[in-house]
Amino acid sequence: MGLLDYFLAKPKSSANVARERLQILVAHDRAERGRPSYLPRLQREILEVIRRHVHVDQDAISITYGQDGTQEILELNIVLPEENSR
Amino acid sequence: MARIIVVTSGKGGVGKTTTTAALGMGLALRGFRTALVDFDVGLRNLDLIMGCERRVVYDFVNVINGEASLNQALIRDKRCSQLLILPASQTRDKDALTREGVGTVLNELAQSFDYILCDSPAGIEKGAILAMYYADDAVVVANPEVSSVRDADRMLGILASKSRRAENSEPPIREYLLLTRYAPERVQKGEMLSIDDVREILALELLGVIPESTAVLTASNCGNPVILDQESDAGQAYADMVARYLGEELPLRFLDPARRGFFSRLFGGD
Predict the structure, then answer these.
(1) How many C-beta atoms lie closer than 10 Å to residue B183's C-beta?
(2) Is B150 in Cβ contact with A22 (below 8 Å)?
(3) Model-level pTM?
């Protein structure tokens, strides 16, 4: 099946590739634009405070910023390590 | 009350100055008192595209610095008396333009003109920021090409956050997209982003589509805004754009590949 697909599939036109790449890029750029400028520093400082008590990686903390109508939502998600690794 | 229009793009070489010249001439020919202001300090080109490069005595920076009056610096177009050009300075001093200075000059122009067109330099540096700062409307020029479309989107972000209207929480700048150097044959072959692709990505009102055309180079060679060449596809497409800007509803033209004759199909190869 895979092989058949390979031979039957029309190669994607370069314009389609361009469109898909741009859609992803522009969506990413626009999401970045909406965020307040203090967000990266806030994330760093929150991480420092948490690290005083538990050891977590940079990857274990995520901050998402969203807008719902007039409300701005700042969501903070921290994955705490297993008990024995503390 | 004058309307200030910025012609901008982010990326260079997509047709900002060509568009400024065409839109300005188009508005002036319809009887509006129109001023063209070249913000590309150090690399002025609008005077060349307008064919008045040998009549430049004073420039934008001279006026800002009080070395010349606005009337001394403005060059009246020889083809249309309603159209005046304020050339950019050739100085290499990057700080020659100031926000206050630009504001004062635009304010003075607004007393006696209907439309003021600001021809932005490429990039997102000071000159480009100042060109759009006081704008009421923005014509974002883009080619159907990835880097141009991305830069156009970045420019939209700047228009929405760094303009006077944004800073004063006034109604935002009206943004329009102008797609230039469009090649329908290449779109049909899947080699070029289509109008719908670009429109979908940028989500902007489309003011016009200018086809890739030899007339553009011919016009700039001679210092004539291409809109004056009403025989050409690009000239007609620019005239349509002016009409749409003024609120007329016109269908887009020149979107289909040129029909090829029997012999060109037989022998023409590609």
Answers:
(1) 16
(2) yes
(3) 0.83
